Amino acid sequence: MKFIIAIGGVTNGGKTTLTNRLMKVLSNCCVVHQDDFFKPQDQIAIGADGFKQYDTLEALDMEAMVATVRAWVENPRKFALSHGVEATGTEIEDKDTDSRLHILIVEGFLLYTYPPLMDLLDQKFFISIPYQECKLRRSTRNYTVPDPPGLFDAHVWPMYLKNRAQMNVLDANIVHLDGRSSRESLFTEVFNAVQERLNTLL
Ligand SMILES: Nc1ncnc2c1ncn2[C@@H]1O[C@H](COP(=O)(O)OP(=O)(O)OP(=O)(O)O)[C@@H](O)[C@H]1O
Ligand SMILES: NC(=O)c1ccc[n+]([C@@H]2O[C@H](CO)[C@@H](O)[C@H]2O)c1
What are the transmembrane regions (predicted)? Predict the structure, then answer.
């Protein structure tokens, strides 16, 4: 069986931290990071506010991201091998006879407003933190393209609010997590929820 866990949420909410923690305990598990699908810098539109519009779906190659997730669905074992993930077991089985549980974690800040991707996700989580906490955490980060002064208030946070509102209209079936909780309690909450869901399916 194949199962796709989605870890969405605000920038600096702790998505990558939680994903890495889950990866440690889940066997046969691969990951797809949305940040790997940003378009090249020269293809990012500049808004009326003068800032590069990174926090929009248009800044991402979402077709490529969906194709990557579909490649995993098609053959998780081949995906693991071709993405340098150590596969559990040695032989490559026919995908049709491979009955083990395979898990994919899809992690990113804009997962739930793009229906072709949403349709592939089995269990959706969303991490939120308040404005001040988010601004503080973000100010300590170094992105490949550093944030110009004023970007957070002019672009990042307004886009987050816009996308969150759109997400709430599109799909109510999302488990909300408080990103101010400790790393360990976030992990436990998600791990237990996943186990609970898998128990109903296996
Ligand atoms: N539960 C937590 N409590 C406090 N700080 C946390 C927690 N989880 C992560 N952090 C810290 O918050 C920052 C952002 O974490 P992380 O990189 O996991 O977030 P993210 O959501 O993947 O961010 P982005 O996608 O915007 O890069 C890091 O400095 C990390 O150490
Ligand atoms: N990864 C990148 O290329 C990149 C460049 C500029 C900005 N960002 C920020 O990443 C966050 C999502 O993780 C978004 O808030 C982007 O602003 C990423």
Answer: none
